[in-house]
Amino acid sequence: MVSQKQLKGPDVFARTFAADEKSLLAIAARLEARAKHGFFQQVVGEYLSALQLGGNESVLDLGCGTGVIARMIASQDDWSGRITAIDISPYLVDTGKRLVSEEGLADKIDFLTGDAHSINELQGQFDVLIMHTLVSHVVDPATVLQEARRLLHPEGRIVVFDGDFDSLTYATDAPDGGVETDRLQAIAGHTQGRVMRLMPRLLSDNGFRLEWSKAYVAADIGRADFWSSTLPALRVLLPSAGVMSESDASEYVDKLEGASMNNTFFASCNFYTMIARGIQAA
Ligand SMILES: C[S@@+](CC[C@H](N)C(=O)[O-])C[C@H]1O[C@@H](n2cnc3c(N)ncnc32)[C@H](O)[C@@H]1O
């Protein structure tokens, strides 16, 4: 059986089940900050609107982190459905539970700890399953999609939103313009850098029919904006992944923050959303 614990690479977001508290705090802060950014609010708003939810569905936020997507749905005025939020990290699940209590949403969301490769006890229960930047971190995306198919009602829908992290770049003043630091960032922060290019085929191979898609470029040119909340996290996460020393990570981030102050910053990554429906067996 495939398990996240078989992970071989250094991706810190894929190792949250065993990460130290300093890394988990940095991850939680980054997830909360990016959720408040207009780009992510636009992305989530567009896929929720494409889903045309009635307000009483059963929704699973898989790889929920601190539960930002679950909380966005639960806080809609007309929402009366049931939301389950699952993550492999007990620390992030506990943070999510604390935040929903503070926000008065505790009676609308159930938080659980689990590995997306095998969530056996909840089979066939959900109308909609959302993976918001999960698949780029899992050991085996095909197994996770098969599991999603089992978790959903036969014609339930899946939303997959993620970065095409092989396109992620932060320009630097190094002689190679940042090629090597981009490579280190890619392995420190992601496990499946090309998975969204393969997603239409993976969905089809695992019992889904693609119904809707949308492409985005998150590019900050001159000043860091969307990417600005990543920069403090990189100071902690690059050393935690073992790809840079603390002093190299600090120097790298200092220069990126300096570039933003000088209006010479450039960072960019492509993102995609795909919505697909389970195909009923004949
Ligand atoms: C980039 S974060 C996204 C969190 C949240 N969906 C959001 O957008 O704020 C990726 C999340 O996937 C979780 N994760 C990684 N592998 C997982 C797995 N096999 N099963 C469940 N969660 C997993 C991590 O703990 C982390 O919270």
Automatic annotation (TrEMBL):
Residues 56-164 form the Methyltransferase domain. Signal peptide: none annotated. It holds the Pfam family Methyltransf_31. It comes from the Bacteria. Gene3D superfamilies: Vaccinia Virus protein VP39. SUPFAM superfamilies: S-adenosyl-L-methionine-dependent methyltransferases. This is Methyltransferase domain-containing protein. It comes from Paraburkholderia hospita. The lineage of its organism: Bacteria, Pseudomonadati, Pseudomonadota, Betaproteobacteria, Burkholderiales.
